[in-house]
Amino acid sequence: MTLDYPDEPAEDFPTPPRDVVDDEGREIHFRRGTDDREALVEMYTDFHPEDRAQGIPPSREPQIREWLDTVAERDCGIVLASHRGHLVGHGMLVADDEGGYELALFVLREYQGAGIGTELLRTLLGLGQEIGVERVWLSVERWNDPAIRVYEKVGFERVDSASFEIEMALRLH
Amino acid sequence: MQILLGLDGSELSVRALDRTIERASETGDSLTVAVYVDTTDETLDDLEQLARDRIGSATVDAAVHRIEGDPGSGLLELAADGYDRIVLGGGTISPMGKIRLGDVVEFVLANATTTVTLVR
Fold first, then answer.
1. Which of A59, B29, B62, B113 has the fewest CB atoms within 10 Å, measured from its CB?
2. Pairwise CB contact (< 8 Å): B101 & A164
3. From CA A75, how far away is CA B86, in angstroms rounded?
4. What's the whole-model pTM score?
5. What's the CA gap between B11 and B47, in Å, rounded?
6. CA-CA distance, A118 to B28, in Å (whole number)?
7. Rg (CA), chain B
8. What does DSSP assign to residue B16?
């Protein structure tokens, strides 16, 4: 996909590992993800159906595994958020075929609205900067205003909104 | 039943074609495959060939129609010609696995007066 990325790179973002206290006073640990398949399957099995977007995450375990396998075939940057040892959030940068990376974030419903998504996003972008990712894009459903605001806050710009989804792009370097 | 299937060569559109051929050969529905250039680099010739290869030796009453110009309005114009159903693949799949419907699917869903089936 050919996208118009911003000319200027974004600010410097924090890198994993780091600990952040969320708006509810919970201590959230952010770390780089590697081989965390079973913990991810468990998190996604608990994922609230209404929090799915554009077909992901899939709802049943075999499809969740298949999805994680397919994504893992590409070059990925992963950040995991956990609370008391349990995964509560998963952010990914997945290489496309044009040198850019597609971004997506997932946070369990009980942990939404407490600033975890924002910190997961910033930490993931920090990891991206660390591993040399230059261009990041994402698509978000056009009625998802809270998410769009968070993406805009870190510097994503809208590049396309002719359809049900809005596409946004960011330059990291 | 007269079925009109839209094919632009994307993964999901090819999957929709295969399933529709399979189904039509069981039900005896007649199938028109409308090919158009949209989300892939394939030409109308490539797409027509692709459609004919997929239809192959299936025992199905099938024809191939080329849509030149705007695919969305071309599909609707054709559909008004006595079709009972439009079948489309649900768009493209991003590296992350997200489904993107695409402009043609959205246009057809919003404007069709015929039943539309999205194959996933």
1. B113
2. yes
3. 37
4. 0.80
5. 13
6. 54
7. 13
8. H
Residue whose structure tokens are 């969320």: A22
Best mutation target, A2, A54, A106, A159, to test chain B (most B CBs within 10 A): A54
Q: How far apart are CA A129 and CA A145, in angstroms?
A: 26
Indicate which of B93, B94, B108, B120 best probes the interface with A, i.e. most A CBs within 10 Å of its own CB: B94
**Is a pLDDT exceeding 90 seen at residue A105?**
yes
Q: Which fold has domain B2-119?
A: Rossmann fold (3.40.50)
Q: Is the pLDDT of residue B100 over 70?
A: yes
Neighbours of A76 (CB within 10 A): 16
Hey, are the CB atoms on A102 and B96 less than 8 Å from each other? yes
Would an 8 Å CB–CB cutoff place A142 in contact with chain B? no
User: By C-alpha distance, which of A75, A78, A77 is closest to A99?
Assistant: A75
| pLDDT confidence bin for A162, thresholds 50/70/90 | low
* Cα separation, A17 vs A14, whole angstroms: 9
For residue A146, how many other CB atoms are within 10 A of its CB? 10
Hey, how many other C-beta atoms are within 10 angstroms of the C-beta on A5? 17
Q: Compute the distance between CA of residue A138 and CA of residue A165 in angstroms, rounded to an integer.
A: 10
